[in-house]
Amino acid sequence: MVKARKYVVKRHFQGVPKKDDFEIVEYELPQLKNGHFSVKAEWISVDPYFRAYNSNIPTPYDQFGFQIGTVTESKNPHFPVGCRVFTHKGWCDYSVVTNLKETYGNVHILPDLQGLPFELALGALGMPGVTAYFGFLEICKPKAGETVVVSGAAGAVGSIVGQIAKIKGCRVIGFAGSDDKVQWLEKELGFDKAINYKTADVSKALKDAAPKGVDCYFDNVGGELTATIYNQMNLYGRVSLCGCISSYNEDPTTYKTSSLLPLILFKQLQVEGFLVPRWLEPEDRRPEAITALTQWIKQGKIKTRSHVTEGFDKIYDAFVGMLAGENTGKAVVKV
Ligand SMILES: NC(=O)C1=CN([C@@H]2O[C@H](COP(=O)(O)OP(=O)(O)OC[C@H]3O[C@@H](n4cnc5c(N)ncnc54)[C@H](OP(=O)(O)O)[C@@H]3O)[C@@H](O)[C@H]2O)C=CC1
Ligand SMILES: CCCCCCC/C=C/C=O
């Protein structure tokens, strides 16, 4: 019998998730039936949607999320012992896969990453990379020479968006929450300008960096920063609304009508919110994004960084650390 551990969310979060909102539960993995296989987790992802989706899910629930693991026992010939798989089994060290269908695609054997690190399948070559690729290219429709602004620029999605924008010949300005992140964006990733939104006069810094205004905005954060950026958008500018992490710790029933509406109206902005699963149905277009991103990474046109926390007991810390901005690049846990 294998003893397994999983994180159960006991109650809805109030503000920043608390350690006590989770309980680590130990249990015995069930015996495998035909078609089933067990997985030992190696890499577990921590993502903002865990926070954003929490209020809509009845508690208690098992904390979901993407993970990469190896098959330890199998009664399914398509998933032999030792193969490496990608699942949405979440924060657990062992799990049994009984059903391949999941909410974002299916459980599958990890494709050949051509020598790149496995954990990229949780970041640049996983859901965040696909989000960056389609969310930017299909909604912002960038043209060479245009000015693109990215908020949350040093994170999993934002760092990829900014580099895709450079590949497409745009001038790229990123906002991030520390001087180290700003250095990384400018010196290593090739952003034309990066701005620490916590210390800069954001409006002035953006005017200096984008004297001709902003054509495209890829928004990961929302809030005051977004209001300042909308003020400097050009007529017919395009906004890809990917996330609004600055609001996730608020109670959704207290959201107010946005005072951004006059800016959207008079600048005639196209603002489009999206959720990445839209590019899975009716056709699964992930291979298109993953192929392009893999090539760019191998050609050195896109650089990646993983922010690695070690230990199953540290997943909560990695999660709240990511929400607080401790990560540069993709936040992952090695278990
Ligand atoms: N629409 C979709 O389908 C998807 C949306 N998303 C969204 O994209 C965004 C980025 O996700 P992801 O790349 O995985 O996460 P990141 O790797 O960017 O990590 C989150 C980052 O958010 C920043 N942050 C936290 N609080 C604030 C705040 N109040 N104001 C500004 N920045 C803040 C922090 O960076 P800093 O130090 O710069 O503050 C932190 O590092 C999230 O909003 C997420 O919900 C992600 C995937 C799919
Ligand atoms: C259940 C799988 C969900 C993956 C898509 C996440 C969309 C994220 C939205 C905001 O962060």
From TrEMBL:
Keywords: Acetylation, Cytoplasm, Fatty acid metabolism, Hydroxylation, Lipid metabolism, NADP, Oxidoreductase, Phosphoprotein, Prostaglandin metabolism. It is found in: Cytoplasm. SMART domains: PKS_ER. It comes from the Eukaryota. It holds the Pfam family ADH_N_2. Monomer or homodimer. This is Prostaglandin reductase 1.
